[in-house]
Membrane transport protein (Dioscorea alata), 386 residues
Amino acid sequence: MGFLSLLMVASMPVVQVLLIGLLGAFLATKNINVLTPTALKDINKVVFMVFTPSLVFFSFAKSITLQGIISWWFMPVNIGIIFLLGSILGWVIVKVLRPGRHLEGLVIANCTAGNLGNLMLILIPAICAEEGNPFGKIDVCRENGITYVSLSMALGGIFIWTHTYSFMQKDGILREKMKLNNADLEAYQIQTKVPLLPDENVSEKKQHFMEKLKPTLHRIVEELMTPPIVAVIVGFIVGVIPWIKSLIFGLNAPLRVLQDSLKLLGDGLLPCIILILGGNLTRGLHKSEIKTSVIVAIICTRYIVLPIAGIGVVRAVKGLGLLPSDTLFAYVLLVQYTLPPGMSIATMAQLFNAGQEECSVIFLWTYLVAALAVTAWSSVFMWILT
């Protein structure tokens, strides 16, 4: 299959995202005013609390098996490498370009957390559906592709809603501190440092080590108990225990209505989140505090440095015979290095009121460039693997 043919196959999913995103942008314009800032924030909460957990649980629990987890062991390692490289590169950008303390977490998040689920749920099945795709029969390719993407989404959710969540939360706290006057700031600092202690103990000069540790442990538990992560944990348990899985999934499952309900809710995620993306991108047309040099650095990180590193990593592991024989699996690993920032970052920015305008500007340019970058790199990956 020639490179131009591969380029056509890779471009179709990106065009779908652009079309739906443009519709969201149109609905958010002042003349139409359907996706208002309040509406976007409310829909984001529904996406966070309902649609994302439903789709993650449905896809993960239905597709995962214990044998599959063992054979796909490199995917969590691969995502971990992406987050590690992205964090290092984001830290360098922050230290060199100095975007502002209240934007440091946002910059690192956009360098680190790619769209490991939603965009790939469109990209991979659409490529499989194209005639002449290099990954075999359409039905087999689609089934295997959705399984790989489900695992990518679940693992990406764990990384994003722990690692990235903490960065965005810190930005939100710092912004709140910046809004307070000196007297309120002092009280706010005391409250955030010892939220589990009664007021009468605040004046104590020293605290027991375990009492100091409680706020940190409390924050970690809160991060791990977000709806998407709970859905991953429950989906994993259901997926690896056959008798529980058979109660929910299958034509004759006693609780099949639960399967159908989860699928119905999960199907609402993609159109909603792409419409939200389009609506948020319109805010990127306004001025913000983010420097142009920072945006360029994020784009170079996501679409030049990470993809080149990904080719080196995946080819090295494949050469050692540590990957499954299915070429589609290696392709999914490579695509993970080339994705634009995860849409969950925008959700977190609205949840914590942390750099929403700056996030919109970054998303505007990274997703515009993604239309070309993801298509080009996807074609290169298929050409390398086939």
